[in-house]
Amino acid sequence: AQSVTQLDSQVPVFEEAPVELRCNYSSSVSVYLFWYVQYPNQGLQLLLKYLSGSTLVKGINGFEAEFNKSQTSFHLRKPSVHISDTAEYFCAVSGPDNYGQNFVFGPGTRLSVLP
Amino acid sequence: NAGVTQTPKFQVLKTGQSMTLQCAQDMNHNSMYWYRQDPGMGLRLIYYSASEGTTDKGEVPNGYNVSRLNKREFSLRLESAAPSQTSVYFCASSEWGPRTPLHFGNGTRLTVT
Questions:
Q1: Residue from A32, A21, A33 nearest A85 by CA
Q2: How many helices (H) and strands (E) does chain B have?
Q3: Beta carbons of A103 and B33 less than 8 Å apart
Q4: From CA A27, how far away is CA A69, in angstroms rounded?
Q5: For A40, which residue in chain B has the nearest alpha carbon?
Q6: Which of A5, B10, B11, B73 is within CB 3.0–4.6 Å of B69 for a Cys-Cys bond?
Q7: Between A43, A90, A102, which is nearest B42 by CB?
Q8: pLDDT tens-digit profile of A62-92?
């Protein structure tokens, strides 16, 4: 079975500072990895995804993430955050088995960008 | 571009009452899902429908039923609501399989008193 750990439940950071949101997963098979963002009172939106190939993936709003197979990690980074990045961020993993039950989500990290 | 539309946005029920949450997608996606979101627990899968005509249980199916009415619509029914079902419910859809990302609706906030 797959699982996802997001080590930080809350991350406060000042505007224009860099940020890294951590995600680790466990799986006995190859995985596909996703980061989603949830703004207040909205559904989740896809930020970026890793399916195969280059381990550094770029997403929307200046975010990027690096897949590290040996460390089973998929950390999300942004070099300079804006107030508008304040939201909750979810890491998710899926695998090549039967679909539907394979999207396992982490508990989320609440990013607060301070002026 | 509507994407995934959920109704209602908010609902308050008394214990024992029933209700149906509606979901429709206009992206011609094959697969549809119902999740619940609770603080500190991420999203947990209630039921999913891999394709029109099929439904399967997810991680937390007890107390819920679903209907895949057609390719566009996937409803979630609470037959006898309980306080433990107080949550935010999200419908999602995807093209097919674990490589395709989920597209989410804006959620239904349900309170059971």
A1: A21
A2: 0, 11
A3: yes
A4: 11
A5: B106
A6: B73
A7: A90
A8: 999 999 999 999 999 999 999 999 999 999 9
